């Protein structure tokens, strides 16, 4: 179905607001103005739909929206961007997706991965797929953050993103180098883990943070380094193709083998799992709109929370299987929840309010769909057949009885 | 952004009343002043308010009257249609009493209702207490000059979900207790009248007749532990009634609000345990003792052992913030303090304290309180 929506646009800000409405939800509600039938107003759900009573957005919308957002609302274009990327861990995948989104938005991209091209770490995703980046014209180099200049061979950049360091030791050399090179915009991948716990979720930008956290020191240093523009992005957990670290796989491992899923009590703890494209689209917007994003901290997350139990249900639906949840009191049973479970055992939920307000960004994470895609990949690589030991699970289950 | 200054009904001075009028007002050269209003409205509206004498309407009607509109409250007349608010001057109250109008009637008597409201030329309806679609239809039918029907719905219409917060586009539950609100929203849509629906979560503030904060204040004042079901990690959301009233004013005559639904509540969410602690802070009480219990282990009969639904329940207000240029003024502790200082803290409350379910829980002993 071809949709043609006319907007009366007279200012860039209005443009970005209009573009940001290009989610099916908004379109559906504006369509309801034209067809005055009751069913178009409400999206009716049934009580069996507990897992995800949200309107769907497809990959097509996601891609179109990213490009539309970037193109229509830019302050600048054709930027030379350097991504200093970690060689492992949950954040590695950000650089991979970001490089692609930046190219789609018309920028010139170099990815410098920390370490050596020949290292074993490069055999894992997303690094194993870097040919995809090169096919798009992205320059992929390797090097040491203490000597970025050597790695990039004297190239100059408008914008530099550090997606590597967790403290000043690791990031300061990159910041200092960028400053010395006259880089206009410095961006940093920080962490939402620095927020202090609170009775009042969500974590929003400006909330108190743990002052001793390494990332806080880095954000502080960057803000005082007199870049023309700077931003910091605080992610939580991510899912998406090319991920270097397990996320939903922990759940699939158990569900596909018909094993009970042990969840720390009470199971209603909320977390935030974003599709990595939410982060790449947000950072791309920030690079295209440096004034709007300047001196701003952004929670780089989706705009939905999911409970632990809810995540089990969504993973089970993605796998078209039943799942059995077993709650356990980690403390009482003497279980180290950090080892037993992949997410922090507490409410840990940030919302991306600054990105919505300042960049006109919208989230396109649809966790149900994302998990279905990830499950297909999980099966494709044969991970369901892998021989996995569930030692901690077995301990928990025997103690719960 | 200036506006007419109105009393915020505390003795602590004045706040700006943001009145959004004609937001598409354009100056030459395409310079958009999206929210250009200052001062009194360009044209005073004739406003019919269904209900409006108990809680939300108390603040909303005052704001509208002060802004120069003609407001008629339609109530059964069982309770006084006006009451002086704590901190409100005698002069201000007298002025309000003089200007606000009253239509007495039973809105369930549809024919009588139509005859009472039909001749007055109402342009805007604020329906604060409507529950079923059948109650709304006669009003729409009786008002040929109706420009906008503004309806107080509820976030209770959303289908329970593992993915939160609720957004306006999310699925609704046709079987919910608030089915009548959904039917009303659909009816308004079908009738072709310009409508706006507001979905609050839990409302709190001085004069609240739903014992939300009052439930906690009773226990804090009595120095009693606060029994919270389950883990106390359930997340919900409280919105101050004055912020809700502001939102109701913002949507009137605002094209961005036409035929739109808005969630209206506080800026942050809060856990059940967090509400207990926030109420303590607000009332100047020490940090409370919280006792968790498994509600399945008890039969409370018809009594409610806890004032809030035992589940996560919160909604995003992003749409209202973006589209209406509205934002809550009160954070939770300040808002609860406002409620405490103007209401419970002055010895006023709606429901007597009833600790019978508390006693059942506490006597069962902490041993059984494990979840």
UniProtKB/TrEMBL annotation, chain A:
GO biological process, one term: monosaccharide metabolic process
Xref: SUPFAM superfamilies: NAD(P)-binding Rossmann-fold domains
GO CC term, one of those recorded: cytosol
Domain NAD-dependent epimerase/dehydratase: 89-299
One Pfam family in the UniProt entry: Epimerase
Positions of transmembrane segments: none
Name of the protein this chain belongs to: NAD-dependent epimerase/dehydratase domain-containing protein
Organism: Selaginella moellendorffii (Spikemoss)
TrEMBL record, chain B:
Alphabetical list of InterPro entries matching this protein: Epimerase_deHydtase (IPR001509), NAD(P)-bd_dom_sf (IPR036291)
Gene Ontology biological-process entries: monosaccharide metabolic process
All residue ranges annotated as the NAD-dependent epimerase/dehydratase domain in the record: 47-264
Gene Ontology annotations for the cellular component aspect, listed alphabetically: cytosol
Matches recorded under PANTHER family: CHLOROPLAST STEM-LOOP BINDING PROTEIN OF 41 KDA B, CHLOROPLASTIC, UDP-GLUCOSE 4-EPIMERASE
UniProt name for this protein: NAD-dependent epimerase/dehydratase domain-containing protein
Native species: Selaginella moellendorffii
């Amino acid at each position: 179905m071809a949709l043609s929506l006319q907007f009366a646009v007279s200012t860039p800000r209005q443009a970005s607001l209009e573009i940001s409405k290009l989610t099916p939800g908004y379109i559906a509600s504006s369509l309801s103005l034209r067809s005055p039938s009751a069913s178009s107003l409400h999206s009716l759900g049934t009580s069996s739909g507990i897992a995800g009573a949200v309107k769907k957005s497809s990959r097509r919308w996601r891609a179109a929206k990213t490009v539309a957002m970037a193109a229509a609302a830019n302050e600048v274009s054709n930027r030379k961007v350097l991504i200093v990327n970690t060689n492992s861990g949950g954040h590695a995948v950000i650089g991979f997706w970001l490089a692609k989104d930046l190219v789609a938005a018309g920028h010139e991209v170099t990815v410098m991965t920390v370490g050596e091209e020949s290292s074993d770490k490069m055999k894992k995703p997303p690094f194993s797929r870097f040919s995809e980046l090169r096919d798009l014209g992205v320059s992929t180099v390797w090097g040491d953050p203490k000597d970025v200049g050597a790695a990039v061979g004297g190239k100059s950049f408008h914008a530099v993103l550090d997606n590597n360091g967790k403290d000043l030791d690791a990031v300061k050399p990159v910041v200092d180098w960028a400053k010395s090179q006259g880089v206009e915009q410095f961006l940093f991948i920080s962490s939402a883990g620095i927020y202090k716990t609170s009775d009042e979720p969500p974590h929003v930008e400006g909330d108190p943070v743990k002052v001793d956290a390494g990332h806080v020191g880095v954000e502080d240093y960057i803000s005082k380094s007199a870049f023309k523009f700077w931003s910091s992005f605080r992610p939580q957990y991510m899912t998406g193709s090319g991920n270097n670290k397990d996320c939903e796989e922990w759940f699939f491992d158990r569900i596909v083998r018909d094993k009970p899923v042990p969840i720390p009590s009470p199971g209603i703890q909320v977390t935030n799992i974003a599709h990595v494209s939410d982060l790449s689209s947000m950072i791309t917007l920030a690079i295209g709109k440096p004034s709007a994003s300047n001196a701003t901290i952004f929670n780089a997350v989706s705009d939905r929370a999911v409970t632990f139990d809810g995540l089990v249900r969504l993973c089970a639906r993605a796998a078209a299987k039943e799942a059995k949840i077993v709650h356990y009191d980690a403390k009482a049973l003497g279980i180290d929840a950090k080892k037993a479970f992949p997410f922090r055992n507490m409410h840990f939920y940030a919302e991306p309010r600054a990105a919505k307000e300042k960049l006109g960004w919208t989230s396109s994470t649809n966790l149900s769909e994302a998990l279905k895609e990830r499950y297909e990949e999980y099966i494709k690589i044969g991970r369901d057949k892998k021989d996995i030991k569930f030692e901690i699970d077995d301990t928990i289950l025997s103690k719960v009885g | 952004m200036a506006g007419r200054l109105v009393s915020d009904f505390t003795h602590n001075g004045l706040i700006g009343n943001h009145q959004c009028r004609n937001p598409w007002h354009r100056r030459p050269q395409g310079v958009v002043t999206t929210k250009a209003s200052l001062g009194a409205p360009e044209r005073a509206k004739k406003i019919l308010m269904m209900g409006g004498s108990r809680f939300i309407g108390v603040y909303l009607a005052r704001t509208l009257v002060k802004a120069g509109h003609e407001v008629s409250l339609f109530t059964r007349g069982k309770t006084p249609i006006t009451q002086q608010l704590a901190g409100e001057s005698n002069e201000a109250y007298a002025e309000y009493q003089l200007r606000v109008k009253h239509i007495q009637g039973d809105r369930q008597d549809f024919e009588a209702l139509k005859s009472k409201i039909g001749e007055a030329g109402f342009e805007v309806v604020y329906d604060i207490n409507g529950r079923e679609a059948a109650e709304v239809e006669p009003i729409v039918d009786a008002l040929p000059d109706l420009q906008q029907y503004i309806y107080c719905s509820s976030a209770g219409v959303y289908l329970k979900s593992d993915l939160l917060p609720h957004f306006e586009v999310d699925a609704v539950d046709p079987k919910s207790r608030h089915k009548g609100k959904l039917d009303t929203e659909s009816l308004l849509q079908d009738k072709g009248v310009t409508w706006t629906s507001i979905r609050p979560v839990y409302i709190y503030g001085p004069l609240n007749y739903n014992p939300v904060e009052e439930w906690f204040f009773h226990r804090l004042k009595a120095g009693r532990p606060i029994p919270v079901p389950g883990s106390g990690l359930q997340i919900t959301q409280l919105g101050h009634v004055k912020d809700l009233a502001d939102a109701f004013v913002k949507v009137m005559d605002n094209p961005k609000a036409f035929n739109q639904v808005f969630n209206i509540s506080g800026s942050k969410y809060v856990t059940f345990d967090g509400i207990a602690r926030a109420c303590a802070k607000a009332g100047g009480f020490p940090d409370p003792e919280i006792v968790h219990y498994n509600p399945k282990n008890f039969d409370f009969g018809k009594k409610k052992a806890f004032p809030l639904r035992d589940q996560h329940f919160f909604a995003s207000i992003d749409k209202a913030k973006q589209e209406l240029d509205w934002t809550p003024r009160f954070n939770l502790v300040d808002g609860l303090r406002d409620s405490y200082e103007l209401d419970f803290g002055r010895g006023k409350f709606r429901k007597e304290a009833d600790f019978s379910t508390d006693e059942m829980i506490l006597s069962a002993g902490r041993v059984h309180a494990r979840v």
